[in-house]
Design brief:
This protein is α/β, with parallel strands linked by helices. It has a single domain (about 1-305), classed as UDP-N-acetylmuramoyl-L-alanine:D-glutamate ligase (3-Layer(aba) Sandwich), CATH 3.40.1190. About 35% of the residues lie in helices and about 25% in strands. The chain has helices spanning about 30-35, 55-60, 110-115, 125-135, 145-150, 155-160, 170-180, 185-190, 240-250, 260-275, 285, 290-305, and strands at about 5, 10-15, 20-25, 40-50, 70, 80-85, 95-100, 120, 140-145, 165-170, 195-200, 205-210, 220-225. α7 crosses α8. It starts with a strand and ends in an 11-residue tail after the last helix. Bound molecules: adenosine monophosphate.
Length: about 325
């Protein structure tokens, strides 16, 4: 059981209708790791600048996250993202993206990172995702991305998609990547490129799972709503927390990654994402306890129970 993740490790400036932060710990690999740590040993890979100091390393290490593959580049600046949300929290508006040390990054995975059972290519330039993929022969791998890379690096992103087992993208991004306006057709088009599973994230509305059994080719569909919350402050990192819960849980599972396990993983992804959005950045998930996850998972399971209901009356 070990999980390697590559993706941005960053500082974020975020403004939502409910508050703002000028500089907080962020990045796709950071949010992912903070969620996945509840289920398995997680190892983020990526560079940071000298603005990433002991405080940030200690926050991660104190939560059991292995930081030896986070490379500190002397004289460099960490990835920086500035964004805002208007009243519709499902839409992030990017105001600034500074790649910083990611611009020159050439990944060289440690032996431990290469030996992971599960690999997640969180959001970052798709060529970097592919370089990491080529160094890690994990039995199960996944990928996330975003509209920026579909716009400026679509061919490399399509090549990266073909090299993983499971793609996790926003529904609009799946449509944009495939040129298919219907989500079911778009997901099938992604699976035709190689992956056996596609998760379509739908913001506050939840997430849908499309799968194709590798042995029989049988297709399945499953979906969960977002966990109903009355206080949502900042959705930044929700998708990465979802992926951290999803892949973290799957890495911790001993038996085959069958449909039932994938559906349970959807539940853990949903729960981790719901905690993430309650406060800014990593604030809530950083002090989350395992018992809170289990309680919310059980509540979600009860509220979505459908099979086993008495038959409908005429
Ligand atoms: P999410 O809200 O889950 O889509 O992810 C938000 C996180 O992604 C933030 O913490 C940002 O630091 C990071 N991020 C934003 N833009 C990019 C990008 N172009 N590449 C990689 N990471 C990014």
């Amino acid at each position: 059981m070990a999980l390697t993740v590559v993706g941005s490790i960053a500082f974020d400036a975020v403004k939502t209708p409910f508050g703002e932060r000028e500089r907080m710990l962020g990045g796709a690999a950071t949010h992912f790791s903070l969620a996945a740590r509840f289920f398995t040993e997680v190892r983020p890979v990526g560079p940071v600048g000298d603005d990433f100091v002991a405080e940030q390393f200690e926050l991660l290490e104190a939560r059991g996250i292995k930081t030896d593959d986070i490379e500190r580049v002397a004289g460099g600046k960490s990835f920086f993202w500035r964004g805002h949300y208007d009243f519709d929290l499902n839409v992030a508006h990017t105001d600034d993206t500074q790649l910083g040390v990611f611009g020159e990054f050439e990944p060289k995975l440690s032996d431990a990172a290469q030996a992971a059972d599960t690999l997640f290519l969180a959001n970052i330039q798709p060529d970097l995702q592919r370089q990491v993929r080529s160094q890690c022969a994990a039995g199960f791998s996944g990928l996330d991305s975003m509209n920026l890379w579909i716009d400026i690096a679509k061919d490399s992103l399509l090549a990266a998609v073909a090299e993983v087992d499971c793609v996790v993208l926003n529904d609009a991004e799946i449509r944009m990547l495939t040129g298919e306006s219907n989500l079911a057709r778009a997901a099938r088009a992604v699976m035709a490129m190689g992956p056996r599973a596609v998760v379509a994230k739908q913001g506050e509305y939840g997430a849908a799972l499309f799968t194709k059994d590798p042995a029989t080719g049988e297709e399945s569909f499953f979906a969960l709503p977002g966990f109903p919350l009355e206080d949502v402050r900042d959705p930044t990192g929700a998708g990465d927390s979802f992926a951290g819960g999803f892949f973290g849980y799957l890495d911790g599972v001993d038996d085959d990654l069958d449909e039932a396990n994938l559906r349970r993983a959807m539940g853990y992804g949903t729960v981790l994402a719901s905690f993430n959005v309650e406060e800014f950045g990593t604030e809530r998930v950083s002090r989350l306890e395992r018992a809170e996850i289990d309680e919310r998972f059980e509540a979600l399971r009860r509220m979505t129970q459908f099979e086993g209901l008495p038959a409908p009356r005429d």
